Amino acid sequence: MAIGHLHHHSVNKVGQSDGKREMTMDQFIEWLRGFDKDNDGRISQDELKEAVRATGGWFSTWKSKRGVKSADLNKDGFIDQNEITRLVEFARKQLGMRIVGC
């Protein structure tokens, strides 16, 4: 299942509140959607790597591999709509984000 397309505009800035990266789950999904370069509704390892880079993160290749491995339940190599919530813990630990309301 593809990541839903509510609004089709790129959101590459991470919301900041009190000096921390903070956003709702919907904002997180919309932010990730901005890295879905081939518009297939899924996030690949390369697309996740770009998301890591956008946060100023180091070791983007390593982190993106770990992110996909931890979230990809069906082992197809992509993060889809059913797996997106599994990226929340990755975003907290590896990207320093705070996802609220989930």
UniProtKB/TrEMBL annotation:
Sorted alphabetically, the keyword list is: Calcium, Repeat
Please give the Gene Ontology molecular function terms for this protein: calcium ion binding
**Domain of life here?**
Eukaryota
Q: Origin organism of this chain? A: Actinidia rufa
Domain EF-hand: from-to ranges: 23-58
- This chain's protein is named EF-hand domain-containing protein
Matching Gene3D superfamilies, A to Z? EF-hand (1.10.238.10)
Any Pfam family the entry gives: EF-hand_1
Q: Which InterPro entries match?
A: Centrin_CML-like (IPR050145), EF-hand-dom_pair (IPR011992), EF_Hand_1_Ca_BS (IPR018247), EF_hand_dom (IPR002048)
